[in-house]
Amino acid sequence: MNQRRSxxxxxxxxxxxCGERLHYxxxxxxxxxxxxxxxxxxxxMARECLSRGRAARGAAAALVGMVYWGRTTILRDHIEDxxxxxxxxxxxxxxxxxxxxxxxxxxxxxxxxxxxxxxxLDATALYPEGGGQPADAGxxxxxxxxxxxxxxxxxxxxLAEPLPAGVxxxxxxxxxxxxRFDHMQQHTxxxxxxxxxxxxxxxxTMSWHLGAEYVSIDINAKDLSDAALAEAEHLANTILWDDVxxxxxILNRDELAxxxxxxxxxxxxxxxxxxxxxxxxxxxxxxHVLTAxxxxxxxxxxxxxxxxxxxxxxxxxxxxxADYRAKTGTLNAAVASLKVRPEDVVSQIDRLLAxxxxxxxxxTDLRRTLLRYExxxxxxxxxxSVADRPVVCRRLDGRDMEALRTLAGQIAEAGGVALLxxxxxxxxxxxxxxxxxxxxxxxxxxxxxxxxxxxxGGGQKSQAQGGGPEVAxxxxxxxxxxxxxxx
Length: 487
Ligand SMILES: [Zn+2]
Hints:
- By secondary structure, this protein is of the alpha+beta class.
- It is built from 14 helices and 21 strands.
- The model is unreliable at 1-10, 29-37 and 66-74 (pLDDT under 50).
- Residues 187, 191, 274, 284, 286, 288 line the site of zinc ion (ZN).
């Protein structure tokens, strides 16, 4: 059975009612139609007209087109396909009032979004992720809203648990205000700083990102000087201090043509244009503060060249204050540690680093000198000799490989043969060395000894080193090498 309302259910045939509603809507200012006049009955009427053939479909298209500025393309496409979306486009209460924190709306559907419970309402003050701005958080009928997403102009509230309400019920919604206001400050600040770079350098903002810590824009300019960055930052803040109004209006093709938008748009009709006084105008569907002064401040943090573009990181409003506090805290701690004035912190750090480099060089020289003395002592008590060279065969624990190798090198330089072993940081190490003229193959001796410590390594006939995990085999490995060299 056809469950649709038939024309005989009403005083007027459906096509006439559609025409009548259209006439009423045409008599109104279309700028306000997107918020005031589109009702569930219009939508139902349009769906019914669609089912009644070509002529009625024209009336439906006109009706939906008239009443829903900004969404006409999507709905007209549906009408041409002879389909309509499952739900009426959700009315976006934040378009009229971005400061609305609590609202009442009717449940249109209880559904799922990617496996999680979700609710569709006829209207919402919760902003769905989009246009670079993250989704709002909040509650619906006391249930936490985990995410807000949109598809085909329908807004889905993704819920922590199913809603304790049915379709048709009215529910109370709340916006998590601190999060939203932060997004509004960052978003409005982004418009302002992007406009400053556009005006000063002719640079377009190619993309932007509102992260948890900072905001970034990628602009199509590179090699910006510190002075140019400071100038853009100053100009943007000047606009904030002028506290110019931030307004939004949905405009048609003719009105758009008369305006100088910062960035062109391919949507012919029904663009929502956000203006920051006369400083900036751009199409945007996000949420913004009411006047520029409410952004508070814009502070640039750092820049990064990315191909032909520059990524500019910045923070606005409360984030700028938090950033200032954190950095002041760090600077004060450095001042206290270094015992210098704030302006001398960097030069003092440079001085300390230079000093530290010099000390490291001195220490290396001293170590080498010490090892030379140690080599001399060890050579005075050799384990034997081969080819007129004294052979030092010793186990020296607790030295790193670098120290062991340097000592072996010193012994070789002084005319001896070094077979040194040592345990360090739980590892067995072997370092062998002799002069290049010696008729010995220390690499072969090392290769024969290494299996006893489960290790690996290598080198040349006059110098080889290696190590392994089995410290217990170290004495046997050293004895093996001694046997191979001394016989
Ligand atoms: Zn915006």
